[in-house]
Design goal:
By secondary structure, the protein is α+β, with helices and mostly antiparallel strands. The chain is built from five helices and eleven strands. Strands 1, 2, 3, 4, 8, 9, 10 and 11 form an eight-stranded mixed β-sheet that branches. It has a three-stranded antiparallel β-sheet with strand order 5-6-7. The chain is elongated and about 95 Å long.
Length: 243
């Protein structure tokens, strides 16, 4: 009877996990397995994201690639005056205005259709509601200028002038019509990081005098470049003269 009773006690202890001594042990193996699962999950997520971006960008495609962020300063110059910066935002492709930085184009491609060689001034114009082509220029809510419309007594034309860096006064001038200037439809002008661009409608005689964007654009562009995602940049509000 004593031996049977002892066997029952052993069986009962085994059934409840080995008794008081076993219950007091820390299940390090269990915790280790859980930690390993978490680590592998994080690594797998990051690897999957990188692989996806690599596939979208075709392994080192033309910048800006999906997942990168650029900023470009711009101004719209109509018959000798800069107009107010466009404030309209909301483009799922990732090329739009920078809400906290007037005069700055936010170039943050989310899809291949807005990345690389597809990151153009035309994409920006479409996103913010600007009418822009070789023969037309109109900012949202502004005057529609068509090729030949008068600036004073002279017919005007659409031009784009690129400046290689903030503070530059000499730039590359483009026109969408046949002539002495390089022919490039404004919609096809490529966007770039940390440069300036002026979209203009002026008479041919004034094309060479098209200025870079206003000083506040330089300030906001520099702030956008140096700011982090957690620290908003201090921006300058434009004070343009309305026509």
């Amino acid at each position: 009877m004593g031996k049977a009773s002892s066997n029952k006690k052993v069986a009962r202890a085994a059934g409840i996990g080995g008794g008081r001594t076993y219950r007091g042990r820390t299940p390090w193996t269990y915790f280790g397995v859980i930690a390993l699962i978490v680590v592998l999950g994080v690594v797998g997520t990051v690897t999957s994201r990188d692989r996806r971006l690599s596939q979208i960008n075709q392994k080192g495609g033309t910048p800006p690639t999906v997942g990168t962020t650029w900023h470009e300063g711009y101004g719209v110059y109509e018959c000798g005056k800069f107009v107010d910066a466009i404030t309209r935002t909301g483009n799922p492709q990732g090329i739009t205005t920078a809400p906290s930085a007037p005069g700055v184009i936010l170039i943050q491609p989310k899809v291949k259709a807005a990345a690389g060689k597809n990151a153009t001034l035309g994409k920006f114009a479409s996103a913010v509601g600007m009418r822009l082509n070789a023969a037309e220029l109109q900012v949202p809510g502004g005057t529609l200028y068509q090729d030949g419309s008068k600036c004073g007594a002279q017919p005007g034309h659409v031009y784009v002038k690129q400046f290689a860096y903030a503070g530059a006064t000499v730039g590359q001038l483009y026109n969408g019509k046949k002539g002495q200037l390089p022919k490039l439809d404004p919609r096809d002008v490529p966007l770039n990081d940390q440069i300036l661009i002026t979209i203009a409608f002026v008479p041919a005689a004034d094309a060479s005098k098209i200025p870079p964007p206003p000083d506040y654009v330089n300030t906001n562009l520099n702030n956008s470049a140096s700011s982090s995602s957690t620290t908003p940049a201090t921006t300058t509000t434009p004070t343009t003269t309305k026509k």
